[in-house]
Design a protein that fits this description.
440 residues; alpha/beta; 4-stranded parallel β-sheet; 13 strands; binds pyridoxal-5'-phosphate; binds zinc ion
Length: 440
């Protein structure tokens, strides 16, 4: 294999571990690991040649390179052989010009990256394909791994369950009882994952799964596992590719465990180093006010950080008080002139509903990003001609319960500025015509 990558320690203690070792933290200092690539080898090919190669592969049928993650395999995970790649053609999600919403807000160049249009309905697929592929490689190399487990606020478990089912590796998912949407709960069940509902929150599930992974020859799929970040970082590569290799001015992304914002930054930095882009966008990370430890740290200029007990929020996938990727995220935000903003339940629900009225169908986490966007525009941190990308993290169809409750006005602490009601009528033409006259 020409291209090389390994786990390095993010505390900078120079330890290195192979990607096929079962390891989540540095053995010498306990720090988190990150995948490090042999950049000198990658730089042998010019930026222009990388762009050509990626464009040649993009969304074609040559397995596995038509996947937008594996189309960038050399930059993502060269340690997996092509036969062991477990791909459902993730990535390549649409990036569209939100013209009407932008006009309402006073910005001309607003785009939504619909990561919810992935195989299981969220961006988690981009990282999970890499992790499950690596495990398949390890199993085929003879390692004793009984299955893969994760704790989840919903979308990670759906993704793990699907990729494992696709390739025939057992999966175990731990979910906080009554804290995920109906769709998120039924997805792993339908895919045949051993689904365990624990009477605790996400952070509580996390403690249990870490113990399980220590004792049971079970591989841990949580985002402290930096293989997932390698796949997720293709979000930035894909955005740039979709703009003919031009970086945007601002990217807004919701954050909970903060793996995704870290991945976003890592993707841009790698492209910069390879000569694919020559400017960095500003990165905005948006948090729910009820789960805002990063926002609080931002207010101290990132001098201080304290984990918190996250409160219940409609943005359930980011209800996390002790984010595992906090240090990675702070590093990224410092390098990208970052801003952290927060949104109340009222702001989240109404931002999502307002955007839906311009043709979107937003998950509540995208609502967090949109609410932050509205504030930044109002404050003048984003100007009229900035090219702004909002990362939509999941498909709204996974959050039907949230949508129904909003439009039936049954959410707490929300003012329902945009609730819509169906009109019930007798099957009578005149009655219908009268309503049409009133409404159109
Ligand atoms: C996981 C998830 C997030 C948060 O991503 P982090 O990497 O935990 O910050 C946001 N939105 C959705 C829909 C998610 O599933
Ligand atoms: Zn270390």
């Amino acid at each position: 294999m020409k291209y090389k990558a390994w786990f390095g320690c993010i505390s900078g203690c120079n330890e290195r571990y192979p990607l096929n070792e079962v390891i989540y933290r540095c053995k010498s200092c306990g720090g988190l690991l990150e995948v490090v690539h042999d950049m000198d080898q990658l730089k042998v090919r010019s930026g222009a040649a990388w762009m050509r190669l990626f464009d040649d592969r993009y969304q074609r049928t040559d397995y596995p390179f038509g996947s937008s993650v594996w189309g960038k395999k050399e930059l993502v995970c060269p340690a997996v052989s092509d036969e062991n790649v477990v791909s459902m053609y993730e990535g390549g999600s649409n990036l569209f010009w939100a013209e009407r919403l932008g006009q309402e807000l006073g910005v001309n160049d607003l785009w939504i990256k619909q990561c919810g249009n992935n195989p299981t309905g969220s961006f988690k697929d981009l990282g999970m394909t890499v992790l499950v592929s690596m495990v398949k490689q390890m199993i085929s190399d003879g390692q004793d791994i009984r299955g893969i487990a994760c704790a989840s606020t919903g979308d990670t478990s759906a993704s793990l369950a699907a990729y494992c089912a696709y390739t025939g590796i057992p999966s175990v998912v731990f979910l906080p009882k009554d804290k995920v949407s109906v769709a998120q709960l039924i997805q792993p069940i339908a895919n045949g994952a051993l689904t365990i509902s624990l009477d605790t929150d996400f952070d509580g599930c996390m403690e249990i799964v870490q113990e399980v992974a220590k004792e049971e020859h079970i591989y841990l799929a949580n985002s402290m596992n930096s293989l997932r970040i390698e796949g997720q970082k293709t979000i930035s590569m894909e955005i740039v590719q979709q703009f003919d290799w031009e970086a945007p001015d601002v990217v807004v992304i919701p954050g909970g465990n903060l793996g995704n914002v870290s991945a976003l930054g890592k993707g841009f930095l790698m492209m910069e180093e390879l000569g694919i882009i020559n400017k960095r966008p500003r990165i905005v990370c948006a948090q729910a006010e009820r789960a805002n430890p990063l926002y609080k740290s931002y207010l101290t200029g990132f001098e201080e950080f304290e984990s918190i007990q996250a409160q219940q929020t409609i943005a359930s996938a980011i209800q996390i008080g002790n984010p595992v990727s906090i240090n990675r995220a702070i590093r990224v935000l410092k390098a990208f002139d970052g801003i952290v903003e927060q949104a109340t339940e009222d702001e989240i629900a109404n931002a999502a509903a307002r955007a839906d009225l311009t043709g979107l169908y937003n998950c509540p986490h995208t609502g967090v990003a949109l609410a932050a966007l509205f504030k930044l525009i109002q404050r003048g941190d984003i100007s009229r001609d900035d090219r702004v990308i909002v990362i939509s993290t999941a498909n709204g169809l996974k959050f039907t319960d949230f949508k129904v409750k909003y439009h039936e006005e049954r959410l707490e602490d929300v003012s329902f500025k945009h609730a819509q009601k169906p009109v019930e009528l007798p099957p009578d033409y005149d009655a219908v015509a009268k309503v049409l006259d009133q409404r159109l």
